[in-house]
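User: Reviewer 2 asked us to show a designed sequence for the structure in our supplementary figure. I'm pasting the structure tokens here. Could you produce the per-position amino acids so we can include them in the response letter?
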């Protein structure tokens, strides 16, 4: 009986110690959640519409969501983000399209001044375009879009400035290299955006 009580006490003590260690570890981390808005651009000029060259992937308002995690006391963490075009773009008048960009990045954070920080990101992801026909299918169960998915690499830079308590603003620019982006005239696009974020943890 005494041995059972001691074993239960030891198990309870171990459980409490583990929970205390996990809570301290959680408090020692920090992360960010962000929403952003921006615009897409491609530096490649449109060549000849008459011969049906693929259009430029550019313009339009893009919304995005981002999350970041960095262990406290460290400069290196990771970033996950997704952005999409708010309104569908026109694809030469016979269908519309909406791009989505989703990627996972390594993150490096450093200071420029006491309050201003610099965030550098690089990683991989998927560029997905949904194409919607002008005359949608009316048959029940019919999917009214087709998807084209492409592997991509992502590089990004952002300048972070805290403006109130745990809230911050971050202007940022992203470079996407989209593999075999055949529906458009360039594999290289840029997205400029401004993020509003909230930091939790230390």
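Assistant: Here is a per-position design you can include in the supplement:
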């Amino acid at each position: 009986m005494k041995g059972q009580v001691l074993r239960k006490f030891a198990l309870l003590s171990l459980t409490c110690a583990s929970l205390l260690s996990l809570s301290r570890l959680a408090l020692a981390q920090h992360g960010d959640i962000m929403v952003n808005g921006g615009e897409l651009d491609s530096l490649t000029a449109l060549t000849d519409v008459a011969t049906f060259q693929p259009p430029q992937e550019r313009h339009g308002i893009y919304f995005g969501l981002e999350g970041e995690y960095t262990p406290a006391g460290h400069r290196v963490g990771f970033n996950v983000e997704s952005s999409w075009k708010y309104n569908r773009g026109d694809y030469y008048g016979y269908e519309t399209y909406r791009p989505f960009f989703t990627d996972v990045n390594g993150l490096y954070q450093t200071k420029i001044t006491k309050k201003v920080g610099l965030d550098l990101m690089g990683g991989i992801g998927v560029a997905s375009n949904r194409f919607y026909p002008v005359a949608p299918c009316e048959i029940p169960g019919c999917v009214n879009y087709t998807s084209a998915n492409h592997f991509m690499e992502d590089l990004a830079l952002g300048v972070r400035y805290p403006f109130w308590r745990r809230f911050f603003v971050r202007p940022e620019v992203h470079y996407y290299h989209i593999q075999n982006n055949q529906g458009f005239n360039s594999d290289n696009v840029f997205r400029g955006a401004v993020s509003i974020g909230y930091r939790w943890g230390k």
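For the response letter, you might also mention the following. Residues 2-27 have pLDDT under 50 and may be disordered. The radius of gyration is 23 Å.
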